[in-house]
Structures are given as structure tokens and as C-alpha cells.
Protein: Rrf2 family transcriptional regulator
Organism: Calidifontibacillus erzurumensis
Amino acid sequence: MKVSSKGEYALRALLVLGEQRGKVVSIQEISNKTLVTVNYLEQLLLQLKKLGYVVSKRGVKGGYILHKDPDEINIGEVIRNLEGPLSPMSCASITKYEPCPLEEGCLLKPLWSLVRDTIAYVLEQTTLGDLLENRISLAKGDDFVVVKRKPGAKNL
């Protein structure tokens, strides 16, 4: 799995909108804060709108606003919707599996499956709200990333 500029820039735009929760943000302001061109943002925001993450407002004071609460925007879902499968290899993909002539007895497939599962777990457990509240951190003494939510917060 490789996140392209499309996925990266879309997440940046969602973060800007999340920081301005409830306010209409102009495409120029999003561009200034993300360092992404207005032309490219127009394409990305149109996709995000079609996917139901943002809504647009027309007119002089027009722009974009989040359509969902940041805690309801799952990062794994956003990346899958924009980039496709999370698996690094098609033979290990759950959603876009493609057989390989070397698959039977392949010693690499378990590795690719573990990579897929690890990436999917982290992204699916992360929301836009987690990013906005800086709840992503490396667990001390461990070699994995965790999302630290407040007690009583909903886990995905």
C-alpha cells in the first residue's frame, strides 16, 4: 500500500475543515493551509463531497464544511475510498485479491498479509477526531502505534 498525494492531500483538507468545525472554509484558505493548489483541491473536494465527507456552499462566502463529525470519519475508510485496497500486494488483498502463479507455498504471503492487517488495524482504529486531538502516539516500551482516547470514548 502506498498513499499517494491524493490520499495525503485529501486528509490535509479534512484536517483543515475539522479545525474549523462548523465554519465554511474557502478553497483558497484550504489551499493556503495545505500548500495544495486550488485546481487539485477542487478535484479532491469533489470526490470527498461525493463520498459524503464534506458539503459545499456556493456564493461569495462559499466554500466547504465537514458533513460528518470528525469522530465519525474513519481514516481507513477515507484511504480505501480514495486509494483502493490497503494491501501491499494483490495476492494478500481481501477486497481486490488477485492470484499469483507462485502463491501456493509462497513464503512471502504471510508477511504481506501481516503488513495488510497491521496497516488496516491502525487506519481503521483512527478517526479524523483522533488526528485533530493528537491522540496518536507510539506506546512507550512497545513497537506499535495506539490511539489514546478519553475514558468512555467510543472505540471503532
